[in-house]
């Protein structure tokens, strides 16, 4: 991935939440009503938030939810996310050391069934799935 890091850094920049995940999205009766917790907002490539959100969805619900989110995001944005496998690996690489500490975040969302071991297992499986797709 390091050899292709310049592709991520040079991607078009947009307003980025910088902590976009399920815990920061508000819904009411199936309708999106808001996105909260914006103190880290900045300009960055859209793939930054998308990659992190995809990882979060895999950890919470499994890989099937990822494509639903990605398709909805790309439709709303009116363009594809370039280098998506690289953005996934970016999020995986930067979360590898700490994913076992995340259960309290998910417990606050009602996923008290998720353990540190579950998160590590899902993280590893997502890594194994995404790495072969990187150039």
From TrEMBL:
InterPro entries: Aminoglycoside_PTrfase, Kinase-like_dom_sf. Residues 6-79 form the Aminoglycoside phosphotransferase domain. This is Aminoglycoside phosphotransferase domain-containing protein.
């Amino acid at each position: 991935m390091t050899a292709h890091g310049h592709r991520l850094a040079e991607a078009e920049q947009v307003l980025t939440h910088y902590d976009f995940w399920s815990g920061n999205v508000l819904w009411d009766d199936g309708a999106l009503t808001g996105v909260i917790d914006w103190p880290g907002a900045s300009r960055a490539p859209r793939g930054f938030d998308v990659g992190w959100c995809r990882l979060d969805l895999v950890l919470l619900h499994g890989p099937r939810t990822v494509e639903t989110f990605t398709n909805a995001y790309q439709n709303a944005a009116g363009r594809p996310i370039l280098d998506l496998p690289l953005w996934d690996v970016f999020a995986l690489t930067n979360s590898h050391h700490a994913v076992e500490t995340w259960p309290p975040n998910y417990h606050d969302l009602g996923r008290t069934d998720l353990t540190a071991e579950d998160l590590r297992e899902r993280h590893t499986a997502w890594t194994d799935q995404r790495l072969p797709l990187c150039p």
